[in-house]
């Protein structure tokens, strides 16, 4: 089963000085699961990496996506509608995080790799009582 990842974890995997770096790298190494990034997290992650670490690191990130190191999950029309409902119910979640919730529900994924514990722990998804948040 794939592991749905948010921008915070993707960023932490790249930035060795990030507080979540070691936990994220260790979890990915030991979990033996394929990473799945919602298409909506790509621009956010690329922006963070470019502005904080530079273009070389951004290029490495995009190369990793292009090489299939991290799979990309497209945003469906139903995801968009569900994200809208999630945003209305949980105003603290932005669009990107709401699409992660919608995709997790559609794909019946119960675990999300995120550094955003504060927001994701409040969400009550349709298919499970609550998400398991890692690392």
The H/E string reads EHHEHHEHHEHE
CATH evolutionary superfamily:
5'-nuclease
Helix content: 40-55%
Mean pLDDT: 95
Give the distance, in angstroms, between the N- and C-terminal Cα atoms. Answer: 16 Å
Label the structural class: alpha/beta
Largest beta-sheet characterization: 5 strands, parallel
Enumerate the strands of the largest sheet in spatial order, edge to edge or round the barrel: 3-2-1-4-5
CATH C-level label = Alpha Beta
Number of E-type strands: 5
In the predicted model, the low-confidence regions spanning at least 5 consecutive residues are: none
In total, the number of domains comes to: 1
Separate helix tally: 7
**C-alpha geometry:** globular
Which band does the percent of strand residues land in? 5-15%
Radius of gyration from the alpha-carbon trace, in angstroms: 14 Å
Plain-language structure description:
The chain has a five-stranded parallel beta sheet with strand order 3-2-1-4-5. By secondary structure, the protein is α/β, with parallel strands linked by helices. Strand 4, helix 7 and strand 5 form a beta-alpha-beta unit. The radius of gyration is 14 Å and the shape is globular. Helices cover 55% and strands 12% of the residues. It has one domain: Rossmann fold (3-Layer(aba) Sandwich).
Structure, briefly:
With 135 residues, the protein is of the alpha/beta class. The protein contains seven helices and five strands, in the order E-H-H-E-H-H-E-H-H-E-H-E. Helix 7 (117-120) links the parallel strand 4 and strand 5 (132-134).
């Amino acid at each position: 089963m794939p592991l749905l990842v948010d921008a915070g974890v993707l960023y932490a995997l790249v930035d060795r000085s990030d507080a979540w770096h070691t936990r994220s790298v260790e979890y990915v190494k030991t979990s033996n699961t394929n990473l799945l990034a919602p298409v909506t997290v790509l621009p956010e992650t690329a922006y963070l990496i470019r502005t904080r670490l530079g273009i070389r690191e951004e290029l490495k990130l995009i190369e990793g996506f292009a090489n299939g190191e991290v799979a990309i999950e497209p945003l469906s029309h139903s995801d968009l509608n569900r994200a809208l409902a999630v945003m209305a119910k949980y105003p603290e979640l932005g669009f990107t995080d709401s699409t992660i919730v919608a995709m997790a529900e559609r794909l019946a994924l119960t675990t999300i790799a995120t550094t955003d514990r504060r927001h994701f722990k409040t969400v009550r998804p349709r298919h499970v009582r609550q998400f398991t948040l890692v690392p």
